[in-house]
Amino acid sequence: MDQHGIVAQTASSIRLAQWACAGTKAANEGTYPRANAMVPPDGWTWAAAQPVSRRMQQHGLIEPASYASADIRGKAGSSILDLVLLTMMIFQGFKEIVAFTLAGAGMVVAQPRPSGARSIFEGTSDVGKTKAGSTVYEPAGNLYRVTGGGADMWGAADDFHFSWVRVSGDATLTADIQFPWSSKAPLEKAVLIFRQSLDPASAYADNAIHADGHITLQYRATAGGKTADVTAAEHGSTRLRIERSGNRFTAYTGSADGKLTAFSDVTIAMEDPVYVGIGVCAHDAEGLTTVSFSNVSIERHSGSPGANKK
After folding, report:
1. Fewer CB under 10 Å: which end of the chain, C or N?
2. How far apart are CA 45 and CA 227, in angstroms?
C-alpha cells in the first residue's frame, strides 16, 4: 500500500471508530436498537461489516442473544474497540513515518502495483528524496493519475515518483499527458522514461514535458554522471513517445493532427532488463503535484524478448 493509501485507511479506521462508539452509546440509551437503523461510514456496507460483527461477537462485544439487532455490550465493549482501533492507527502511523524517513534519506521506497485493475505496470516507487507519491489507475479511461514530489530530475541524481515495468529488448512507450490547471511551478515534469535501475543516480533516458509546455529529451549516460538534455521545437504537445532500439533512445512529440515526429535521439548503454514507465517530479522538495497520463501503451517490438506484449 502506498502512503496515501495508509492515510486513507487510517481515516477509515477513525470513521469506523466514531460509528461504532455512536452505536454503543445509542444502544446503551435504548435509542439505537437495530443494526439496520445505523448509518455506516463512507465506503462501508452491512455486507462488509458482517464479518466484523461476527468477530465482535466472538470476543464478547455483542450479546449472542441479541446478535440480530447488533446491540453492543456497554462501555467495556466500547473501550476494547477503541483500544484495538488505536493500536491499528499507531501501527499504520509508524509505517508512514518509516517510509517518510527512508525517502528523506534518498532511498527508494518501493510500493505495490498501482491501485486499480489491469494496470500495465508492476510497481510504483518514490525515487530519491521526495514526499510520498502515488499512482491510481482508472481502467474506464485507461488513465493513470500520478502524484509525485521531489526537487528535480537533474544533475547526478533524481527525485520523483515512478510507475514502472521491467522490460528486456526494444520497446516503445507512448502516452497523452495533462497537467492540472493549478500547476504553479513551470518546471514541474511529467516523463516517459527508460531507466537502468531504481537508484536515484541511475543512467536513464526520458521524454519530459514541463508544466510551462517545453519538452526535452533528458538523459544521464552513466550512473552518477551529469544530466544533459535537448529541447524540442514543438511546444505544448500533449502526446509523447520514447522508443528504445538497442542502446539508442529516440524522443517524439505529437502535432495538432496527431502525427508523432522524432526530435532527438541519444545512445546510452543499458543492460536488460530496464525499468520503463511514467513519472512525475514536482520541482519542489516540499511539494506534490498530480499529472494525468492517458492512452498509455508499451509496445515490445518483434524480435525482442516479450515482443508485442502490452
Report:
1. C
2. 51
Domain end call among 101, 126, 145? 101
Q: How far apart are CA 113 and CA 100, in angstroms?
A: 19
For residue 151 the three cell numbers come to 526537487
Please tell me whether residues 40 and 168 are part of one structural domain. Answer: no
pLDDT (tens digit, 9 = 90+) per residue, 10-53? 344 444 444 444 444 444 444 333 333 344 444 444 344 444 44
Together in a domain, 162 and 38: no
- Does residue 16 contact residue 22 with C-beta atoms inside 8 Å? no
Give yes or no: residues 211 and 253 share one domain: yes
Q: What is the CA radius of gyration of the chain?
A: 24
Provide the β-strand partners of residue 219.
Answer: 205, 228
Q: Which residues pair with 127 in a beta bridge?
A: 160
Determine if the peptide bond prior to 200 is cis (ω within 30°): no
* Pair 85, 13: CB distance under 8 Å: yes
Please say which residue of 81, 101, 121 terminates a domain. Answer: 101
Would residue 296 count as lying in a domain?
yes
Cell of 97: 513515518
- How do residues 123-179 score in pLDDT, each as one tens digit? 999 999 999 999 999 998 889 999 999 999 999 999 999 999 999 999 999 999 999
Give domain status of residue 309, yes or no: no
Spacing of C-alpha 106 from chain mean position: 18
- Give domain status of residue 308, yes or no: no
